[in-house]
Each structure stands twice: as structure tokens, then as C-alpha cells.
Design a protein that fits this description.
Helix content is 40%, strand content 22%. The protein is α/β, with parallel strands linked by helices. The radius of gyration is 14 Å and the shape is globular.
């Protein structure tokens, strides 16, 4: 595991534990949602919602995480960014035809607006909001 992945893993542990790691300047992570929360947090949301369908074992998903953290901060108040673990919520992944991870789906008004598969550069992900 390289240093970027190690830093992300530490950040994830800190967030889940509800503490801040003193080595990290700021803890910002896209919230991981469950199947039970999907309707209220994604489909019923007024703002656009970007959902990262990911898996904990997925290398490209871990590489994408810091980019999604930046987007979460930049889009604060304009859009929501969530993560959905496909192994924990396979029925949601199946409903939206997620066959590979990471898959990013942008929802607006409860409907799929745009979708992309694979670790994409930040500019390409941001362009999904246009």
C-alpha cells in the first residue's frame, strides 16, 4: 500500500471513529450511505447528488477517494457527494446497473443525469455537474 492509500486509510479510520488524526489538517470525507438511506439522501434530495459506487477492496476506488474529498468541499452547498459500498448494498448497485467500480452516478430530482465508470480526473467529474 503506498503513502496515498495509507493516508486515506488513516483518514477513513479517524472519521469512522469520530476523531481527528493530529497529523491531518482537516478531516473531510464523502459520507458512506446505506440502502436504507438511499431514498432520503439521494432520490428525495433537492440538490444534485453524486454517488460513488465503490468497494473496499477496489484499488481505483481508493485512488479516487482524495479527488472526491476535494469535490465534496468544493460543492458544499451546491451538491451532495455520497459513497455507496456495493458489497453492503448490492440491490442498489443492481438497480442502477453497476457492473464495475468505481462507478459515479449523478442524480438530479431523483433521476440519473450522468454516469461514468472508472477512476476519472477531477475535471471530468466536475464536468458532470454542468
Amino acid at each position: 500500500m503506498d503513502s496515498i492509500q495509507d493516508e486515506h486509510a488513516n483518514r477513513e479510520v479517524s472519521v469512522r471513529a469520530g476523531t481527528k488524526d493530529p497529523q491531518l489538517k482537516e478531516v473531510v470525507m464523502s459520507e458512506v450511505i446505506t440502502s436504507a438511506e438511499f431514498q432520503s439522501k439521494v432520490l428525495d434530495e433537492k440538490q444534485p447528488v453524486l454517488v460513488d459506487f465503490f468497494a473496499t477492496w477496489c484499488g481505483p476506488c481508493r485512488m479516487l477517494a482524495p479527488t472526491l474529498e476535494e469535490i465534496t468541499k468544493e460543492m458544499d452547498g451546491k451538491a451532495k457527494v455520497y459513497k455507496l459500498d456495493i458489497d453492503q448494498s448490492p440491490e442498489i448497485a443492481s438497480r442502477y446497473g453497476v457492473m464495475s467500480v468505481p462507478t459515479l452516478i449523478l442524480f438530479e430530482g431523483g433521476q440519473v443525469k450522468k454516469q461514468t465508470v472508472g477512476a476519472q480526473p477531477k475535471a471530468q467529474i466536475m464536468a458532470m455537474f454542468d
